[in-house]
Amino acid sequence: MKKIGLVFDELCLKHSNGPGHPECPERLENIKKMLDDTGIINDLELLPPRDACEEDITSVHTKEHYNFIKSTKSAEFTSIDTDTAANQYSFDAAIRASGGLLSSLDNLIRGDMITSYTLPRPPGHHAEKDRAMGFCLFNHVAIGADYLIRNGFERVLIVDWDVHHGNGTQNIFYDRKNVLYFSTHQFPFYPGTGSLNEIGDKEGKGYTINVPMAARMNDDDHMVVFEKILRPVIEQYKPQFILVSAGFDSYFLDPLGGMQVTENGFSAMTRFVMEHSNKNCEGKLAFILEGGYNIQGLYTIMQSVFEELFERKNTFIEKPQPTPGCEITIESVIETYSGYWDF
């Protein structure tokens, strides 16, 4: 059986944004319940997380930002903005979440396994170099990508399928080409970034690829985008490692999103990145949970995704039929990036 690592630490359950907040401990608790109920937990390699050190965090964040988040340990509750808060456990949970991803990457680099899944709280992809926002304090996937670069990898691909654009991840790697950031997201929508005009800067031009999608896009739409845009980019970029910012708030029942993706769609996207990690990266593939706020939906989505990872199913959407709006988006993306990639 293929070895798949899981990083889960109960410290992450202690982080709180306040009562009634959608980014709540029940998100992880219900995923863990699914793993226990189905017995999938018995097939996973449980990886002990470590805390990310200050140098790991400040490789992508400013020292001032690190110190500010650390300072929240001294208060029972700190309101950072209208969406984002911290309690006395949040800093410790955040460095454990980032360190958990790094621990999984160490295992993948050594070849102990080829795939890992990290379940963090708080999530990460909205956190910018010097700013916490969108429920996020530190940008775990960015910390992981930079860690890979510092460990000798030259081309790292981040695939972000959260319904919200990962402004923080884009911000951190905007002028670099050793990390290619690819995002599908609802647009216009929070946080307001991710337009077709945002393609990268300096040597990073063309290495930020945004696919701004209208609300109500479905499984077929996402898979056509992957096939017509992401596939040719991967074939040319030839990443050595793939990281996935796996947000599940494009789920059709998510309270914070407006998309129509089902469990089958997430399984198909998972199958797609598995295929390309096998082809280009010797299978080196690390997932990290981002958004997803339908608690029961997370149970069924994650069950479907883990069954895909263990190849107990093989989800392939045959001849996906995109909506007219999606076809227009694809044409616009290809036109925008045709000077950088062949489609």
Textual characterization of the structure:
The protein has 343 residues and is an alpha/beta fold. The protein has helices at 26-38, 54-57, 63-71, 90-110, 140-150, 167-173, 219-237, 263-280, 295-309, 324-337; strands spanning 4-7, 45-46, 77-79, 85-87, 115-118, 156-160, 179-186, 208-213, 241-246, 285-289. The longest helix is centred in the first third of the chain and has 21 residues, at 90-110. The protein has one domain: Histone deacetylase domain (Arginase, Chain A). The strands form two sheets. It has an eight-stranded parallel beta sheet, with helices on both faces. A two-stranded antiparallel ribbon has the order 3-4. Helix 7 runs parallel beside helix 10 (324-337) and helix 8 (263-280) packs parallel to helix 9. The chain is built from ten helices and ten strands. Helix content is 38%, strand content 13%. It is globular, with a radius of gyration of 18 Å. 55% of the residues are buried.
